[in-house]
């Protein structure tokens, strides 16, 4: 117990209580920076944390030596005699350079169906986005030039992603850095991009990736019978989707997807728009 008390005593002596002058000097500098930036302050003033002025939580932690400001804060290699305000200024200048990048990430997270990262993150420069029809696009956004055309990789069935790659290449000149990022993305892909699950459905101005297949196989003039004529006869049960199909078209779609499984005379697969489970019979009743 004696050794424990001795160790505690030694630790206490290593951390002397700051003088009132030290407190006054630090508080005066915090006042210069702005108390709204202060995130955390240790009681002994050994550590101070500030945050981004736009209230995105990006903290800079400064360790203050007891002989501050004669010795610089241990955050980066600032010259001797540097002050808290100098360190904070450099930190905010760096964050200001990233504001546009973070704004693009927030626009994508808000307006599109983001699969990865699962939790919104300002640290990750990639976004994996669902395009519907089993297709996805993996975007790599340039932090230094976030409004520029991103690098991308398409994921999904080749017969669909090939068309997306061709559209991306063909429309590449349509990318305008002054336009919103999501708008540019839709222009290059030539489609209305699906929003997050549960978001209100937007009126599509262009066909989805697989829509052409449904239109090309659309029965006309009732040639396939009244149950599969011009009227749709199957609706996705997902409340946030509710897309309608002709059973014969959906059946052909499911047959073309490798993940579709069959049990007796029923095909089980995923909705081309929202990827929720769907099921149709192989043969019409009657």
Automatic annotation (TrEMBL):
One of its GO terms (biological process) is interstrand cross-link repair. Residues 21-98, 101-195 form the FANCL UBC-like domain. GO terms for molecular function: ubiquitin protein ligase activity. Residues 228-281 form the FANCL C-terminal domain. GO terms for cellular component: Fanconi anaemia nuclear complex. Pfam families: FANCL_C, FANCL_d2, FANCL_d3. Signal peptide: none annotated. This is Uncharacterized protein. It comes from Spirodela intermedia.
């Amino acid at each position: 117990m004696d050794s424990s008390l001795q160790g505690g005593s030694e630790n206490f002596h290593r951390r002397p209580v700051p003088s009132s002058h030290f407190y006054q000097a630090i508080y005066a500098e915090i006042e210069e920076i702005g108390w709204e930036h202060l995130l955390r302050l240790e009681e002994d003033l050994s550590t101070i944390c500030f945050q981004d002025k736009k209230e995105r939580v990006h903290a800079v932690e400064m360790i203050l030596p007891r002989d501050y400001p004669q010795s610089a804060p241990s955050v980066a290699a600032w010259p001797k005699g540097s002050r808290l305000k100098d360190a904070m200024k450099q930190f905010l200048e760096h964050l200001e350079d990233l504001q546009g990048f973070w704004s693009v990430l927030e626009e994508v997270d808000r307006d599109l169906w983001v699969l990865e990262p699962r939790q919104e993150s300002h640290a990750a420069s990639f976004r994996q986005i669902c395009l519907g029809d089993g297709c996805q696009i993996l975007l790599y956004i340039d932090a230094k030039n976030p409004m520029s055309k991103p690098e991308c990789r398409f994921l999904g069935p080749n017969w669909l992603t090939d068309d997306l790659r061709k559209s991306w290449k063909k429309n590449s000149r349509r990318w305008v850095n002054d336009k919103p990022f999501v708008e540019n993305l839709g222009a290059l892909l030539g489609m209305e991009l699906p929003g997050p699950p549960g978001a209100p459905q937007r009126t599509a101005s262009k066909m989805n990736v697989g829509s052409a297949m449904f239109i090309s196989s659309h029965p006309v003039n009732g040639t396939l019978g009244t149950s599969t004529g011009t009227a749709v006869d199957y609706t996705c049960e997902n409340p946030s989707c509710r897309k309608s199909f002709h059973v014969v078209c959906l059946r052909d779609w499911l047959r073309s997807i490798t993940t579709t499984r069959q049990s007796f005379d029923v095909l089980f697969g995923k909705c081309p728009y929202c990827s929720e489970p769907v099921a149709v019979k192989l043969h019409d009743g009657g």
